[in-house]
Design goal:
Elements (H helix, E strand, L loop, with lengths): L3 E6 L4 H12 L4 E7 L4 H11 L3 E4 L2 H10 L6 E4 L1 H9 L5 E4 L7 H9 L3 E4 L2 H18 L2 E4 L2 H9 L13 E8 L17 H5 L8 H9 L1 H13 L7 E5 L5 E7 L4 E5 L5 H9 L13 H4 L13 H12 L3 H17 L6 H14 L7 H21 L1
Parallel strand pairs: 1-2, 1-5, 2-3, 3-4, 5-6, 6-7, 8-9
Antiparallel strand pairs: 8-10, 10-11
Bound molecules: nicotinamide-adenine-dinucleotide and magnesium ion.
């Protein structure tokens, strides 16, 4: 069997670690060309010793020097910076790129993989939120292919007809139903939300994830970002994407057809299932995930999302309807607000307030190319930071 050659962007994060866990179960199938991380050098060095990539990439020159020392004696080239991330995403010997950097930092390397025609396993939803139009164009122009890692979108992908080409009506699809756990504050009294701490916000009831996406799940901004992600991945209109709260996180999303059929995808909540699906696609490989025991689970419940409790979800639908630069503005302001909340610099409710103000100020900025989007991203961050500093 010729192994699939992989670059893993964000190898030290939760998605990266889960990816390497699946890879380690199938050493004959996968071979690692490059691993990247930002700051966790000991962890990256340990991964390099185990998986022996050709390249390792970190944030800056200083960290690269440290990693080089940690990897002394191994035949691994240590590089640093955005250009290096782009290069290891586009190397001729690479087949698939796991795009698992968090936030807007993931955009450029994902674009490089798209232009180079790679199979992209896309965890970094921020790429599609910021620049969905340009990214999808680059995928097409570069002859790349896209497999969603986000559990909801992976479930939708699996529930769509084989060979889905972006034409929902042509395939008899009526709606996409994205499930959401509702996060840790689904049933907490609304009056007490003002006092929520970062520790409470990152304690997700059903998933273990990075801090940023955990806060996004608590505010339901994550689901908002996922609605925008679904719009681009499946070429769906906003009204064709519905969110339903399903606290058990067993059904990972659904596709409803014109004849009333609803196809769903289920598994024990563990990201190794969508990761294994995308790594081996169209084959299937073991992921190490506990088998689903429906009798033991007993009850699956559903409810409609409460937009008052979760104003971020509403803001995301609004940004999608506004279009242009609005989703990129929302994404940038959200990254700043979440970082400030995690640092105890702003209270929980100030997250949505910050986003709302930044969106209102900047919504009509141009979004004609990637550079304009990056400029508006920077502008949104500046305004968000000023608002945060003034709180
Ligand atoms: P994480 O915080 O655990 O890991 C992030 C990774 O990105 C780390 O390897 C880190 O070193 C790297 N990174 C951070 N900033 C960087 C920068 N400026 N430049 C280069 N690398 C940088 O995050 P995660 O939970 O693994 O999530 C990664 C992505 O996957 C996010 O976009 C998230 O929305 C998405 N996602 C995650 C999950 C999940 O279950 N964790 C599920 C669906 C989607
Ligand atoms: Mg998700």
């Amino acid at each position: 069997m010729t192994p699939i050659n992989l670059t893993i962007l964000g190898a030290t994060g939760t998605i990266g670690v889960n990816t390497l866990d699946v890879v380690a179960r199938h050493p004959e199938r996968f071979s690692i060309v490059a691993l990247t991380g930002a700051t966790q050098l000991d962890k990256l060095a340990e991964q390099c010793r185990q998986f022996r990539p050709r390249y390792a990439v970190v944030m800056d020159a200083e960290r690269a020097a440290t990693l080089k020392t940690l990897l002394a004696g191994l035949d691994i080239e240590v590089r640093w910076g955005v250009e290096a991330l782009e290069e290891v995403s586009a190397l001729p010997e690479v087949d698939s790129v796991m795009a698992a950097i968090v936030g807007a930092a993931g955009l450029r390397p994902a674009m490089a993989a798209a232009r180079a025609g790679k199979r992209i396993l896309l965890a970094n939803k921020e790429t599609l939120v910021m620049a969905g139009h340009f990214f999808m164009e680059a995928v097409k122009a570069g002859g790349a292919s896209l497999l969603p890692i986000d559990s909801e979108h992976n479930a939708v992908f699996q529930s769509m007809p084989a060979g889905y080409d972006g034409n929902l009506a042509g395939h008899g699809v009526r709606r996409i139903l994205l499930t959401a756990s509702g996060g840790p504050f689904r049933s907490r009294a609304v009056e007490t939300l003002a006092a929520v701490t970062p520790e409470e916000a990152v304690a997700h009831p059903t998933w273990v994830m990075g801090k940023k996406i955990s806060v996004d799940s608590a505010t339901m901004m994550n689901k908002g970002l996922e609605v925008i992600e679904a719009r681009w991945l499946f070429n769906a209109r906003p009204e064709q994407i519905e969110v339903v709260i399903h606290p058990q996180s067993i059904i990972h999303s659904m596709v409803e057809y014109l004849d009333g059929s609803v196809l769903a995808q289920l598994y024990t909540p563990d990201m190794r299932t969508p990761i294994a699906h995308s790594l081996a696609y169209p084959e299937r490989v073991a992921a190490g995930v506990p088998w689903l025991d429906l009798a033991k689970i007993g009850t699956l419940t559903f409810e409609a999302p409460d937009f008052q409790r979760f104003p971020c979800l509403k803001l995301a639908y609004q940004a999608l309807a506004t279009g242009g630069a609005a989703p990129a503005i929302l994404n940038a302001a959200n990254e700043e607000a979440v970082a400030a909340f995690l640092d105890h610099r702003i209270p929980y409710l100030a997250i949505s307030e910050t986003l709302s103000t930044v969106l209102a100020r900047l919504h009509d900025r141009p979004a004609g190319n990637l550079e304009e989007l990056e400029a508006v991203d920077a502008e949104a961050r500046n305004i968000a930071q000023a608002l945060i500093a003034a709180l």
